[in-house]
Amino acid sequence: MKRITKLRSYMRSFSSDPVLVDNKLSLFHIIFLFVFSALAITICSKSSPLYPLNNWDDANCFFTVGKSILDGKVIYKDIFEQKGPLLYFIYSLACLISYNTFVGAYLIEIISCFFFLLFSAKIILLFCNQKAVFLIPALGTVVFASPAFEQGGSAEELCLPFIAFGLYTGIKAIMLNRQIRKRDWLILGITSGAVLWIKFSLLGFYIGFGLYMLYFYKKNKWYKQIGSGLLFLLLGEIIIAAPIFIYFIANNALYYLFEVYFYCNLFYYTVNDYGSKFLSLFLNLNGGFDSFLFYFGTGFLFIALSLIYTHYRSKKLFSFYLITLVFSFLLIYVGGRRYAYYSLILAAFLPMSVVFIYKMIPKVFRFLRKLKKPFVEIFAGIVFVLSVGLMYLCSPNTYMMWYTKEQLPQYQFDKIISQKEGATVLNYEFLDGGFYTVSGINPEYRFFCALNIPVSQEEQDKYIADAKPDFIITRDKPLESDQYIYKGSVKFEARKDVFNTYYLYERLSDPNPDAA
Q: Is residue 295 pLDDT above 60, yes or no?
């Protein structure tokens, strides 16, 4: 009972902690964060040069569309994929750096990781002294070594720094009880616009942010400042949206932007309609919560610690944290799908758990209260080394480091495909498996792989019936067609402990031998 009372007194003491507005990151801290970011992505992402290939379906879809843009094809109109156009432009940049490998994507992931950790550190430094930055590697390990990180290069991963910036801006304004600067409103417009045009289902944070800030400004009677803030927010949105609209208008493809990115995602991509809208919503969100716990359970624990700290630190801070978290969760899972990487965006809410842990350590371990040099540096080094080691041990991706390119079906099939000059390839009935990436071949067909909409299967069947592709690749299912001959198959560990068999078929030299 005494321990519980003592713990409660510790928790209540948080409310008297000052806001350390002048607590800045030093150059050493920035270098520290960048080095850790590079190591985290190098170890945990399959885009890293330590891996023979990033064979994740989604990343290869993005990469293929990015290459197709450079080849002159128009997104959605000439090549069909469902994410936002900005994501594909980012991957086009990655392709400019390295056309047949994920080196470009790897570098972009490092930059994204660095800015996510940078803004996470800035959140932490509002409440803690600079020693707390050395706990960032522990936070990074929880995020990047988790199954929610998937295999590297997801839309969620690239959006993390944008959400982290928004969280930092909101927390700072609330804790100092002051208005958000016009410059920050502009950046919020740019970052929220980027999220909109990468994957709009990640906008839940900004809905919660807007609702709370409307309440916050009204409570402080900053009525005029609401209008000016919205103006700069809108300007930021326009800065992002204008080039996108110009691209689609110039290519006479504006209709396809709305049809594919918005209509298809809203009406074809949702699942689990249980008849009642309320029942569907409840079961979808319940399933989403189960998925969150399964794929990002450690992240859930750290978010719970964040909520505990904000609850005791400030009611305003707790309300802001909770409303943005809830709306983020709602938009992620309302459609009923539960992929592992969906929960990764919620990693933006972890930094306050570092604050909680950092403040509790000296309260529980009193001998650490007066820890000074060189023990701080030794402690930081231990955390850093342990984090790097845990990332290697815990990441579900590191198994693939030990495979060679020669063992991968993508490279084995490329040896056959490359013998035919100007060959065309179809990735049939499954998401892009990286065969376009390795071969350097851009798909000739709008539906270059199977997607989560009925029309993609129908169109791919037509390509087969007309014997258009020179080569067809299937997964776990042999091709049934008299117009193609079997060229080989490879069984491979596409995910840790998950094996798939890939089949390669080549079109007959005369696909219609009985034709007159």
A: yes
pLDDT at position 90 is 98
Q: What is the spatial order of strands in the sheet that 471-475 belongs to?
A: 425-427, 471-475, 498-507, 484-495
Closest CA to 116 of 343, 347, 333: 347
The maximal CA–CA distance of the chain, rounded, in angstroms, is 95
Sign of the C-alpha dihedral computed for residues 82, 83, 86 and 90 taken in this order? negative
Tell whether the model's pLDDT for residue 4 goes beyond 60: no
The third-level CATH classification (topology) of the domain covering 405-507 is: D-Maltodextrin-Binding Protein; domain 2 (3.40.190)
Q: What is the pLDDT of residues 335-361, one digit of tens each?
A: 888 899 999 999 999 999 999 998 887
In sequence order, the 6+-apart residues with CB closer than 8 A to the CB of 227 are none
**pTM above threshold 0.90:** yes
Please list the residue range(s) of the chain that carry CATH number 3.40.190: 405-507
Mean pLDDT score, 310-339 = 94
For residue 514, pLDDT beyond 60: no
DSSP element (H, E) containing 390: helix 375-394
Measured between alpha carbons, how far is 259 from 253 in angstroms, rounded to an integer?
10
SS3 91: helix
Terminal Cα-to-Cα distance of the chain (whole angstroms): 93
The mean pLDDT of 247-263, rounded to a whole number, is 96
Structural contact between residues 358 and 230, judged by C-beta atoms closer than 8 angstroms: no
Q: Vertex 195, ends 193 and 201: CA angle to 5°?
A: 120
